[in-house]
Design brief:
alpha+beta, Nuclear Transport Factor 2, Chain: A
């Protein structure tokens, strides 16, 4: 395994997820995930499968996160073997309007799996950063 090449491929995947979010495309966001991926959002809602992930994101892109802008930065990337990686991110979300308006920060944790030359999200869990009892 060429670690540098794999790290670049994973960075491309993560940047693609952010681009899909910023374009408001649930289908493009979910395309970064495996067919049977798990996705747990900041509120503990668990979506199972690419279709459910796409539909859930399309819903929030039309409602509470309409027009929002997401930025990911990689905190840590660790290869468990040649085809499995664990990645921790920092996420910064800017929401221009509505009930969630403002800025939110979270720490997503992802398990990625490589099939052939492609990396995909097998599991994604997102944790909101803030003080207990606040909505940061």
């Amino acid at each position: 395994m060429n670690t540098q090449t794999e790290e670049l491929a994973i960075k491309d995947l993560i940047h693609g997820m952010a681009r899909a979010w910023n374009a408001g495309s649930g289908a493009a966001f979910a395309a970064c995930c495996e067919e049977h991926a798990d996705f747990v959002n900041i509120y503990g809602t668990h979506a199972r499968g690419r279709q459910a992930i796409a539909e859930g994101h399309d819903h929030i892109f039309r409602t509470v996160y309409a027009g929002s802008t997401l930025h990911y930065s990689i905190v840590q990337m660790r290869f468990l073997n040649d085809d499995i990686a664990v990645v921790h991110l920092r996420a910064h979300l800017e929401i221009p309007q509505g009930p969630m308006a403002g800025e939110k920060n979270s720490v997503p944790s992802m398990v990625l799996r490589r099939t052939g030359a492609e990396w995909r999200v097998a599991s994604f869990q997102n944790t909101l950063v803030g003080n207990p009892g606040t909505q940061n």
